Amino acid sequence: MFKGNMAALPRLCAGVWVFAFWTLQSTFGASGAAPASDEPASNYTGLGVLKADLLPENALDLGREYQDETMQKRTPLTLQEAIDAALRGNLSLHYERYEPAKEAQNIEIQEAVFEPDIDLSLNYSENNDPRETSTLEGSSKPQSTNFNYTLSASKKFSPGTIVKLWTGSARAWSNSSYSVLNPNYSGKIGIDITQPLLKGAGTFINLAPIAIALSSKRESELRLRKQILDTILNSEIAYWNLSAAYASRDLRRSNVELAKKLLEENRAKLSVGIIRRQDVLQAEANLASAEEKMIIANLEIEKCNDELLGTFGKLEFDNNPKFRVVVLPQENVVVPEFRRVISGALSFDLDLQIALELIDRRKLEYAVADDNVNPSLNLRAGASALGLEAEYLDSYKSAFDAKGYTWNAGFDFSLPWGFREERARQTQAKLSLRQSQVNLSNVRQDLMASLRLAFRNLQSGIETRKSTARTLALNIESFDQQKALYDAGLASFRDVLQAQRDLDDAKSAYLAAVYDVIISQSRLSRLDGSILRRNGFNWGNLGEYELEPSQMSAADDSNF
After folding, report:
1. Between 52 and 410, where is the model more confident?
2. Is residue 219 part of a domain?
3. How far, in Å, CA of 245 to CA of 468, rounded?
4. Edge-to-edge strands of the sheet including 143-156?
5. H helices within 272-391, ranges in order?
6. Would 273 be classed as within a structural domain?
7. How many domains are there within the chain?
8. Which of 531, 540, 534, 520 is nearest to 233 (CA)?
9. Each residue of 212-221: pLDDT tens digit?
10. What CA–CA distance (Å, rounded) separates 107 from 99?
């Protein structure tokens, strides 16, 4: 018993000496004096240098760009280039760009109601009777021909008044011996005026369809702007998703490198009899697990690359370009004042503007439906000058000289039985108006909920990033300590693997926190409108991005 303990004593002493040396080195530096730098070396590759009592700005050393053997074959892409490509090529945005032009045609349709109409009517008739019915017919077989035309121009005015100017002429011939003018020409020039007194009366009602069409066009323009903002946000998120996928892949690769290093060390120790075969098997299993996660990370890169291409409208079945993006920024983020965020969102939010526009349009539609419940009562008045001569031109001269005339006046009244259809449409319009008012309140609620959520996510994301950075620093030191204890024979390899897993989890948690801060900042800026300013835009200089696709210049996508 004593001899066995004596045999293990040199190994125990060596372990205690290594642990003491590691402790002194981490406290005073490698030379035994006070360290010249606050940055101790780490056994874990792929990480920035940390101490538990420090909170560096960049807790993960991602470098200036992601690197591997395939990165040089990938197309470099900045965030601004990604946004520009999305604004030019995004298919959902392309679809929405046509809507304002379509709605503009509805304005033309409604305004066309007040355009003049020109009508021309021609008629020719011939009559041959087999015999006379009276001696006054002047022929044993009466024959007659008649040709006439009417040309009119009518126009509707905003009060509902319809004015019609018309002229007409007729040529009549018969074989009657009693005809004084044979053939004879009659000329007519007249005017007819119709004015609605109940249904359809007034400028407001008659111009309401144009106002409704204008409102629909304004809404389509607002929806286009909303789609532009969503496209900018979605392209930002897709861009940072790809960047996060690269960062995750780099972290997984560092895990693979460390797993290989641990396996090599264990094999060397096994060859001299320091450790058991079980430790080597655990190291091999650890390497296999790290390589499996590396495969998943590479698949995530391909997926995020496709999603980014999808925002550009450039995703194909094959031969898709691969992008090289910038690393995730880890700079400190300042949380904006919440009151300023609310003020900006209320004045900027396009859903609110769309809801207000919808209320205005529903009011107009209700006014039209309410007017249709009235009975139709129209005042008619007309007058015409007549001329009758043996020659065509003489008949018009006679009409201009007012040798003959007619005039008329009257009322037209129409009353649908029960007004069932009209009252049903009136009720529908009233309910739609109430719905739009409720929708406005709902949009306000959704906006406030989204603002509060985005603001809290940004706040908590910043705090979480700080917390995960501290956790990462502690796990780095914990792993270094466990590795030193294992090298000294004072800890099992399972303890080292557990420390490595804890470090991997801390590293992934920090990376997720960095990503969450970036995405939360983007989502909040989308709500308060600062996303335009952050990307160098405003509604005044978006220019062709608000045009329909046929009017846009060709995108320079030769790199894609």
Report:
1. 410
2. no
3. 19
4. 117-128, 143-156, 162-174, 184-196, 376-389, 404-414
5. 277-312, 338-348, 350-371
6. no
7. 3
8. 531
9. 999 999 999 9
10. 13
Specify the range with the lowest mean pLDDT, choosing from 14-18, 364-368, 415-419, 538-542.
14-18
> Which pLDDT score is estimated for 440?
96
Nearest to 70 by CA among 249, 206, 273, 238: 249
CB contact at 8 A, 160 and 206: yes
The last residue of one of the domains, among 358, 389, 419, is 419
Residue 347 sits in the same domain as residue 396: no
Going by the DSSP 8-state scheme, the letter that residue 326 receives in this structure is B
Is residue 262 within 8 Å of residue 307, measured between CB atoms?
A: no
Name every residue whose Cβ is closer than 8 Å to that of residue 410 and which is 6 or more positions away in sequence: 379, 380
Q: Are residues 381 and 463 located together in one domain of the fold?
A: no
Q: Are strands 323-324 and 75-76 parallel, antiparallel or unpaired?
A: parallel
Asked if 142 and 170 count as a contact pair (C-beta separation under 8 A), the reply is: no
Closest CA to 172 of 184, 159, 158, 164: 184
Distance CA 440, CA 365 (A): 17
Give residue 10's domain range. 1-41
Residue with tokens 């045009």: 547
- In sequence order, the β-bridge partners of residue 407 are 383
Is 381 in the same domain as 362? Answer: no
- The H or E element that residue 223 is part of is helix 203-271
- E strands in 141-219: 143-156, 162-174, 184-196
The mean of the pLDDT values for the chain is 83
Q: How far apart are CA 32 and CA 342, in angstroms?
A: 56
Dump pLDDT digits (tens) for 68-79.
655 556 788 999
SS3 (DSSP) at 147: strand
Tokens at 426, concatenated: 């009136």
Residue 91 lies in a domain: no
User: At residue 118, what are phi and psi to the nearest 5 degrees?
Assistant: -115, 125
Consecutive H or E run containing 462: helix 420-487
Pairing of strands 143-156, 162-174: antiparallel
Do 9 and 143 fall within a single domain?
Answer: no
| Contact call for residues 299 and 216 (beta carbons, < 8 A) | no
In angstroms, the CA 540 to CA 60 distance is 40
Q: How far is CA 457 from the centre of its chain?
A: 22
pLDDT in tens, 403-419: 788 999 999 999 888 78
Q: Indicate which CATH number applies to the domain containing 495.
A: 1.20.1600.10
Clarify whether residues 371 and 452 are in a common domain.
yes
